[in-house]
Sequence to fold (222 residues):
Amino acid sequence: MQMDICTINSEQRQFARAKKHKDLDVNCHSEATWRVLNRRMEMDGRGLLPDAATYNTLVKHLCGIGRLEEAESLVVEMQRRGCVPSARTFGYFLKAAKSGSEAAAVVSRMKRARCELDGDTWNQILNLYVRWDDQSGVAEVWSEMEKRGLGPDQRSYTVLIHGLHGRGRLEEASRAYVEMKSKGMIPEPRTNLLMRAIELVKKNGPGPDKEKPMSSRPTGPS
Fold:
């Protein structure tokens, strides 16, 4: 059977997902994937080269198992071969970020690569800061989105509302919900359900896991 790059990429994605298979060692995936890719190319004898989808699959896989240096090397190779890394490529590094400084480093690399930060990327960064409970980071990202005209949008408010709820900041979550609706945005069904639950808690009082005192809550972006 002759194989084109699309078929190879499909096989590669399937192999990368096979890390859950009990017979595969997680540390051998990237090398084995490249061996499969190269062998297929040699067998086919058509001189196929990896494209952006090929690299993105490998970068996603390596970032997912914490091998960031190897993933970064692939991005360098990707650029050297004329493939342009996209917001999706860098999004895998953002997903693996564990601190604000790591996220900032990814953003800097995106700028150096002349890769535009779109609304989805900003929402991904916002989600990180919300998850880290970094008040200043959330406010800074929110401000940047407004300045660049890339939000905040419905997704931004959804991330913020659910993140505030997760931290026990019910009043702030309620205010963000009201503000979201006042801007004509339609909340997701899960967000509406969450707000009903919040209203019940506010009406009947918190349960065993009491809401944090107001003095300990960072103020969300307005």
User: Anything to note?
Assistant: The longest helix spans residues 29-44. The radius of gyration is 22 Å. The chain is about 65% helix and 0% strand. Residues 19-28, 211-222 have pLDDT under 50 and may be disordered.
